[in-house]
């Protein structure tokens, strides 16, 4: 079963384009420290390649959890607006996409819809991560849900695009009829959106 969480599939083409434009790749070596406990990071990171170890001195736990491809780093301190309670180290060589927190805040102010999607992704990550941490010593392990293959494919495509710096195609210009129609427009990573609320339009000539 895939270990890549599907939350990034919430993002649409416009979101991926913005991440590509405002994020920067950071290549890290095994053993390199990415986030320091008690020091507020300037970025939120998407793991594009590699494995990372979360370590907390305050919790006296040098290996809180491992984080891999498609997951986030620095999201918890962004949500609760407090310095991180753990450090993050690269276990292997890897690649991160770093998005400046200041740019994220400005984008959310300018685009509330983006903010809703972005905060939903961060919130689901945080809840899932806390649940896994609290259940990590469970014996036997809790049952796992069936994999969502479509979601996994969307997230894998998103990660490849961010890693390669590929930009999704720009939105097509509005149709001559002013945007009427019943077709569903669906981004590679977003969900379908109906331009007319799902109601079919009849030809006025009829």
Keywords:
206 residues, alpha+beta, Jelly Rolls, four-stranded antiparallel β-sheet, 10 strands, 21% strand, globular, disordered C terminus
Topology:
Layout: H1 13-22, E1 24-28, E2 33-35, E3 43-49, E4 52-56, E5 61-67, E6 72-73, H2 75-80, E7 87-90, E8 94-100, H3 101-110, H4 112-134, H5 149-164, E9 184-185, E10 193-194
Antiparallel strand pairs: 1-8, 2-7, 3-6, 3-8, 4-5, 4-7, 9-10
Helix pairs in contact: 3-4
Walkthrough of the structure:
With 206 residues, the protein is α+β, with helices and mostly antiparallel strands. It has one domain (6-163): Jelly Rolls. Helix content is 32%, strand content 21%. The protein has a 4-stranded antiparallel beta sheet. Strands 2-7-4-5 form a 4-stranded antiparallel beta sheet, with no helix packed on it. The chain starts with 12 loop residues before the first helix and ends in a 12-residue tail after the last strand. The model is unreliable at 181-205 (pLDDT under 50).
């Amino acid at each position: 079963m895939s270990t890549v969480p599907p939350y990034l599939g919430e993002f649409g083409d416009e979101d991926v384009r913005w991440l590509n434009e405002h994020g920067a790749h950071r290549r890290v070596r095994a053993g390199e420290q990415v986030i320091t406990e008690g020091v507020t990071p300037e970025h939120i990171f998407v793991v594009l390649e590699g494995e990372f170890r979360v370590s907390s001195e305050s919790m006296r736990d040098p290996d809180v959890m491992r984080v891999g491809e498609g997951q986030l780093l620095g999201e918890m301190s962004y949500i609760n607006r407090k310095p991180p309670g753990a450090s993050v180290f690269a276990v292997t060589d890897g690649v991160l996409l770093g998005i400046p927190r200041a740019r994220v805040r400005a984008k959310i102010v300018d685009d509330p819809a983006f903010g809703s999607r972005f905060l939903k992704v961060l919130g689901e990550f945080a809840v899932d991560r806390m649940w896994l941490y609290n259940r990590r010593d469970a014996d036997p392990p809790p049952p796992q849900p069936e994999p969502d293959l479509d979601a996994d494919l969307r997230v894998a495509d998103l990660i490849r695009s961010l890693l390669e710096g590929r930009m999704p195609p720009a939105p097509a210009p509005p149709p001559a009829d002013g945007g009427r129609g019943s077709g569903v427009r669906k981004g590679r990573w977003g969900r379908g959106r109906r331009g007319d609320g799902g109601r079919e339009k009849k030809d006025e000539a009829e």
